What does this fold into?
Amino acid sequence: MLSRPISRRHFIASTSLVAAAGAVPAARLWQAGDGAALFVSAEHAPKAGLPARVVLLDGPRIERLQAMADGLRKASPNIVLRLDGTDDHLFDIAAQMARVTVKRGAALPGGKGVPARIIPQERKFA
It folds into this structure.
């Protein structure tokens, strides 16, 4: 039992501080993109050297769609997207094909792309 009563204001302030303290490291991990797979359109690919874990989207739209769906099935939960407008629309279709949901974050500084998280769609039959 508590020795002194806690006001509602004190409780809300303390829980807000705890939530904020946990959110800061999580936001850094989300934005870092370290170890994340990179989905990049050929039009936005860097001219010099690509990272090791990259899905380069080049060629006809059908091939790009297949590459995205295969990449989403194999990728780790954290990814970074550097897509042009057409590939961005195709990416949502590829996510449906791969049976995953993709939650996008805020754009990274310096044009490094958009971090995203892959969430598998689980289906339960009861």
